[in-house]
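Follow-up to my post from last week.
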Amino acid sequence: MLNGLAWSAPLAIGLLVAAGALTDTDPPALAWLLRAAAPAVVGVAGVALPLLRWRTWRYEIREHEIDLLHGALRVRRTLIPMTRVQHVESERTVLSDLFDLRSVTVHTAAGEHKIPALTEGGAAAMRDRIALLAREPDVV
Amino acid sequence: MSSDAGIAPRRLHVAEAFLAALDNLREMVLGALVVLIAGGQSLGFGLVLGLIGLGIGLVAGYLRWSHTSYWVSGRALHFRTGVLSPDDTSIPVGRIQAIDSIQGPIQRVFGVQALHVQTAGGGSEGEIVLRAVADDEARRLRSVVGLPDPVELGLPEWRLRAGPLLVAALTGPQLGVLLPLVGALAAGGDNLLSDDQGERLLDELPDDAGGIAVLVAVAAGATLLLSVLGAIVAFAGFTLVRDGDRLRIRRGLLQRRTASLPLARVHAVDVVEGVLRRPFGLASVRIETAGYRKERAAAQTLLPLVRTRDVPRLLAELLPALALDGGPEQLRRPPSRARRRYALAPALAAALLGIALAVALPRAWPAIPALALAGASEGLLRHRAAGWRDDGRHLVIRSRLLARRTLIARVDRLQEHGTSASLLQRRARLADFQAAVGSGRTGRVRHLEADAARSLFERLRLPAPSR
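User reply:
Got it. Predicted complex:
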């Protein structure tokens, strides 16, 4: 949700500024439209979508594979065989520290996948579990 | 055969002294420039400084050469280099997987070769690099180590001859983009600018429009020439040999390099049929390997130019693990009801481009429908090209982005796979499928029947525990 707010808030401010600039020259209807759009943008992109995204995040760590399902409008499901996991790390940022949240990132030779918004203990447990399950070295 | 034979410590060819001197000079040039510019000294001073630098570089190079040696003893190859604090590297002979030879311009002047001693897990740079070894010394080292020169083994090889090399250079991927552009400029430039609009534009521009068109054409021509020359330099003398469980690729005009690649590292190949190549039944084949992700495109080429129908046979010979039964043509395809979706996205994108063009130059408005139509037909061609196949061992994914690309991947080397579906796709019970190989290349088919995508997803997860 914070990420959504982070980019939607400046956009809304931009809309309000544009509305302010327009009032002098153009018919006021357009300016009011822009003013009305600002909270709508924040509401949808900053609050509703992130909430939906958070509600639809699913993950399952099984013995042989990691199964990820996420996305609000576009739903993605990804399967990573455990033997392909190269390394796994848990991360925190200043922002996530405010809410005591951590994310875990799984790296493969092809790319990386981030599982966001975990509790501190949950992230550590998941990281250690994946590391343990993936310990069998990959045959490259 | 000569298992107990060794090689007494010996120096590299004296060319090493020059190579080392060149390294030194390269490092000194920057410092010298700083001194010159900061000090604002005269040209004479610079010349003296340069001569002193040259002298130091040569002496240092000589010292390095005289303190560099290699030898084989106790079933290991040893390499020592360094004047004050020598570095020692030893590799057990059994761990040496290949000795690659590379001839740069300087090596060719001296008639020597650089030997890269490859071990498992190394990159393309050898664990030990002997930068200057005469041919007979190289042969002796190879025979002691038990890895004869693959070229001398007389293995069957695939060679890019002069004619195909030229065709490969002329039909390269860059040209496919540039040629139509040049053509459009030549044909459309005059028409667009011949009326009042053109006149006014002409007045506003600092230079006349004709001159600009010429400039653009010249720039495009130069780019074409460079890309053709670049391809020739990179692929001249391209030779490919399969030697047991390694591929050896030799190529290059100025810098002749021989690279070797363990077959096990090849996770997939990508058959690329470029815009200019496909009409002639031609394609190039790229290798997708693990761990070589950061290397240049030329280094990832398996076959710079082949007849598309020869690809299955060549794969069977060169990369048996990726050989398909029945050829790559028997693909399953997305449903025909997905055609609309395939056409719509590129049509919209092209129309937007046309609108932007029309805003900038109102007379160009006919570009909007023309571009939209072109986009739509490209989309339909994408639908025709798209397909997939999975026979338990291989996953084949074909897609088109102007060029048609067919990814043939080993299922047991897939890094990840997944499905995705947007809101609209879910309503129409369609889904995208994608799979990624170790090089980071992702194959993707769009708008499959959701059930087909799901069953493919499930099939690919089965083999995991059997390893």
